[in-house]
Amino acid sequence: MGPLKGAKILDASQIMAGPYCTMVLADLGADVTKIEKIQGGDDSRQMGPFVNGESTCFYQINRNKKSIAIDLKSEEGKEIFNELIKGADVFVENFRPGVTKSLGIDYETVKKLNDGIIYCSISGYGQTGPYSHKGGFDLVAQGMTGLMSMTGEPGGRPLKSGIAVYDIGAGITAVYSILAAYIHKLKTGNGQMLDVSLAESGLPWFTWEAAAYFANQTIPEATGHRHRVSAPYQAIKAKDAYMMIGCANQRTWEKFCTQVIGKPEWITDNRYSTNSLRHQHVAELEQEIEEITKQQEAFYWIEKCEQAGVPAGPINNFGEAMNNEHYLARDMVKELEHPVIGKMKVIGSPTKFSDTPAEIKTPAPLLGQHSETVLQELGYESERIQKLIDRGVIKQYPQSVSNQ
């Protein structure tokens, strides 16, 4: 039983940031009902790759949820929404600012129906400020916040991160914000509005960069495969592949010199005796290290580092990572049975609770798979539900999978 069992989440978000947020809440036991458009549903349903016509992108971040497809522009659809919001603890949306007002599902309107609602809006630039009207995209945020100026090789073209850090970052920010607001609600009974900005969610991660900039206006630049402060803390080439070695403090550096690389004289070398000096001479240091490491395979050096207590590891591709014995032993890859896709794997939960474990129970829903079930829970009779389906107010996936 997850720690959030009993919490009711109404999710009108789509693509990545909002759905990732509500997936985490669902894994933790919350009851998440996903509201989708009648035509096409969540836009990520149109993103490949596809298996048997179903989007695996949508599949990855919408597990443990129910789907109801509603036409929110219709009066009857709005009535269904109002009934749902009355029983919800949390509402999550990621419409562009102003859209919820036009649909009549903005915070002020919703608060009149449920004054204890925790209303979480995830947008590109937030609900206020000169950029609030702009749409938000992960890569634009990576550029705007300075991330791309410090990613890649020095003097090279700015590079994006390999993953959607700001989309997922906004989802994570929304999760901890919702949990904090939920604790406040449990104590006081009061809900509130949460304004989460995709473009701001990653700024707190720039800790070392902020330290240098606010201290002496140092502008961080691209450092390629090397750490910004510590050395050697970087990718190092072995005979057969690159590997990561992390001498993040003086103790591990000295162990690296004496027990791994066989160069105890480097400890007192006036180029390498301190981390600051090593960082100043990092290109020279890297060349000297690789003259030695290129003589043996990466596995050999990683083993030596582990024996010496020096942090090190392989640079895996994603397939290698997903088949890593440690991740598999820690249940970071789970398999579910989907009614259309069949067997499909997902990434597991990274937190292991001793008493209230996260659970991955059901696959991502088909569009409108639970429309009938959700309305039945609201007290709608079968005849009325069928009329709503016939008029296009809601969409129900075929009955054969509707209750799975």
Description:
Strand 3 and strand 4 form a beta hairpin. The chain is built from 18 helices and 14 strands. It is 38% helix and 16% strand. With 404 residues, it is an alpha/beta fold. It has two domains: 8-204 and 326-402, Crotonobetainyl-coa:carnitine coa-transferase, domain 1 (Rossmann fold); 233-237 and 242-314, formyl-coa transferase, domain 3 (2-Layer Sandwich), CATH 3.30.1540.10. Helix 1 (17-27) packs across helix 7 (165-188) and helix 10 (250-260) packs across helix 13. 36% of the residues are buried.
Low-pLDDT residue spans:
none
Main sheet: strands, sense, barrel: 7 strands, mixed
**If helices are DSSP runs of H or I spanning 4 or more residues, what is the number of helices?**
18
Count of structural domains: 2
CATH superfamily assignment of the largest domain?
A: Crotonobetainyl-coa:carnitine coa-transferase, domain 1
Instruction: Quickly name the level 1 CATH class of the largest domain.
Output: Alpha Beta
